[in-house]
Amino acid sequence: MDSVRDHYAGLLAPVYSWMAGGAEAALARGEAELDALRLTPRGTAIALDLGAGFGMHSVPLARRGFSVVAVDSSSELLRELRVYAGGLPIRTVEADLLDFAMHACGSPEVILCMGDTLTHLSSKGAVESLFAQAAAALAPGGVFVVTFRDYTTPLARERRFIPVRSDADRVFTCFLEYGDEHVDVYDLLHERVGTQWNQRVSSYRKLRLAPAWVSAKLQDVGFQVTRDAGLSGMIRLVASVRPH
Asked: What is the reported pTM?
């Protein structure tokens, strides 16, 4: 079982934007998601994007006027982000998510932790720590948006095999194996090289987080939480600072 960082470096990062349907399509989805959230600069105009990847949300945030700090543990994905960012006000930081406060300049009015980033943390204690740090970092009236997949109900038998994307030269599939607190994800990538197909397999562990538990832990650190549907069947929680 690889660490999240090693799994991305060894297999996922080089094909991640392809896996997401191509960078242009992914950035358009990110823009639409920000539209649905009605995120526009109102105060400090500072935004943090935790687990920013290749910039699916960082780039749209910057396009609408935010100064963005994009945090990710993958140097390759951050290099890709800088290409898509061009001259936009985005500062990339290669770091662990739990260290984000060390790299924030000023008080953000928006913190995003989107995609399935939250489940990549090492433990529920780490999730609680992230929530507490987000609550402490946000400017008055700020918002913390979290999305994640709900793995609490195990898939059975052949449903554990999930086709992710394929084209003439690549086939990407993942397989899930459930434990009590985690789900082990096995990613299988087949790539055509000339007339031959090569297979690469890597695995890593994700947390199984119940939406009710996540919502309760956000409320424990002072957030008011609303839930709606995110992209691709994800849970989306919008946490705002409770009025005094």
From this structure: 0.95
